[in-house]
């Protein structure tokens, strides 16, 4: 069963961020997502039909400056609290190894 779960998870993207700008944690959609709850609803709608149970562990914001090759993770979600930015930055560093990726608990 663990092998099946690992195989299913291998098809789930760890990181999917906008190419530039400041945005809330989440995935890109055709229209801007207004809140962490919107992002959660979108991701859960994609994953739950595939057998995954979803739970939001917090949120924040991401500043992505592709020209400068910098990503900064910070802040919190009003509805879900602060994510563990250290974990988020590790995922981002794996996806963007040639970037400077930083985080802070400061800001909203």
TrEMBL record:
Binding-site residues for substrate, renumbered to this chain: 24
Primary location class: cytoplasm
Gene3D superfamilies cross-referenced by the UniProt entry: Janus/Ocnus (3.50.20.20)
EC number assigned by the record: 3.9.1.3
InterPro entries: Janus, Janus_sf
EC class of the enzyme, as a word: hydrolase
GO molecular function terms attached to this record: protein histidine phosphatase activity
Reaction(s) the record says it catalyses: N(tele)-phospho-L-histidyl-[protein] + H2O = L-histidyl-[protein] + phosphate; N(pros)-phospho-L-histidyl-[protein] + H2O = L-histidyl-[protein] + phosphate
Entry keywords, A to Z: Cytoplasm, Hydrolase, Protein phosphatase
UniProt-annotated location(s): Cytoplasm
Family: Belongs to the janus family.
Biological role: Exhibits phosphohistidine phosphatase activity.
UniProt protein name: 14 kDa phosphohistidine phosphatase
Source species of the chain: Varanus komodoensis (Komodo dragon)
């Amino acid at each position: 069963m663990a092998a099946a779960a690992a195989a299913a998870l291998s098809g789930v993207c760890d990181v999917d961020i906008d190419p530039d700008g400041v945005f809330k944690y989440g995935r890109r959609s055709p229209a801007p997502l207004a809140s962490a709850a919107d992002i959660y609803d979108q991701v859960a709608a994609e994953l739950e039909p595939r057998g995954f149970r979803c739970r939001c562990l917090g949120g924040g914001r991401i500043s992505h400056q592709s020209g400068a090759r910098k990503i900064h993770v910070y802040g919190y979600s009003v509805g879900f609290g602060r994510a563990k930015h250290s974990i988020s930055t590790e995922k981002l560093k794996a996806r963007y190894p040639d970037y400077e990726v930083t985080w802070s608990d400061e800001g909203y």
